[in-house]
Amino acid sequence: MQHDDPILDQAAEWAVRVGDPGFADWDAFTDWLEQDPAHAEAYDRVAAAVADAAEAEAQRDVVLPANDEAPAAQPVMRRWMSAAVAAAVLMVVAVGLWWGDQGVQTYETAPGETRLIALDDGSTIDLAADSRIALDPDRPRLATLEKGRALFTIVHDDSNPFVLDVGADRVVDAGTVFEVRLGRKALAVGVSEGLVIFNPAGQNVRVEPGQLLESPLGSSEVSVHSIALEQVGEWREGRITFERISIAELADELTSMSGLTFRAAAASAGDEVSGSVLIAPIRADPASLGPLLGLSVRPQGDGWLIEAR
Length: 309
Description:
Residues 9-48 form the FecR N-terminal domain. Helices cover 29% and strands 34% of the residues.
């Protein structure tokens, strides 16, 4: 699926306009920021990238006339460069690839979008919707999952194992197909082939095929239980399975996977729910989720509200 994030597009367009010294439409800009918290978040991301690009541009050599006076056209050139930098950021947003410090590549998907990343050694990473992962070309067997989830199909190398960092935790492969999900409350690692080691220098837990490890964020606690092999990476086939997650977490998951906006009613946000659902029918008819899970799902504003019955 092609990258299509209208909020990021709008944020980049605002960055171009605001970067113009003659910009005066601050009321409209403020209104846009206040329409949705996602607008401000997207603009902050674009603005940070613009600032980095502008700083890099400022460090380039500038050739001045022999009298050392800046050319009269300098303000026009600076205004054009501001627009060019923001337009370049828009192009980067469009392909979902960000270049960070020291050459680190960051791949990011929008809600409803997935991406397959092929590594030089033949390994692959399936990046789920609304997820972000950083790869360092100088250390190709190291990755950092910063958001969301991904399925890893890794070519094993005893002398150089693949390592995934997720926050303060580390997952080391031992010839493996495994999935890692970074949720709002916990980290989960599921294995369908081979073996992974969770935090070798800490808990040192082996996770084998048909097992799911869960660890609350910020905690050293670990639990391991059995899951069906086909559940590992099942989101690639358009399905998600969940057990005793809060309605708030379910709303997050559905928003990420479908590209639609789901919210949990405040009174029901902590209520737990279990089930297995296909995303395509829910994307076509969000209200159909209600009978499947015994919940109330109704339109509200620009999205759908989920609450317990």
